[in-house]
Every structure is written in structure tokens, then in C-alpha cells.
User: Fold this.
Amino acid sequence: MTDRSARPTLYISVDVEADGPIPGPYSMISFGAVVAGRQDGASYAAADPEQGTL
Assistant:
């Protein structure tokens, strides 16, 4: 029997764009994050890139 109260593990891809080559002296221009996939027990499912986002 599976535990229905457990939530799946989310894998998230993150990207940061800066206006220079090193952190600290340069500003962050943009930050993005997206769910790449979900792990639920023994199965992994990649996120559908054509599905709507929140």
C-alpha cells in the first residue's frame, strides 16, 4: 500500500544571468526557475515543456 499523503519530489532547474563574469561586483539581471520533472516513488516523469506554467 502506498502513502497517499506523501508529495512527489520536484526537480527544479535554475538559471541566473548577471552583467559581469564574477558574482559580487556585478548585478543580477534575471533569475529563472522551472520544474524539470517529478519523482514519485520509483518512477520519474519529465515535465512537459508545452504545458502551461504558474
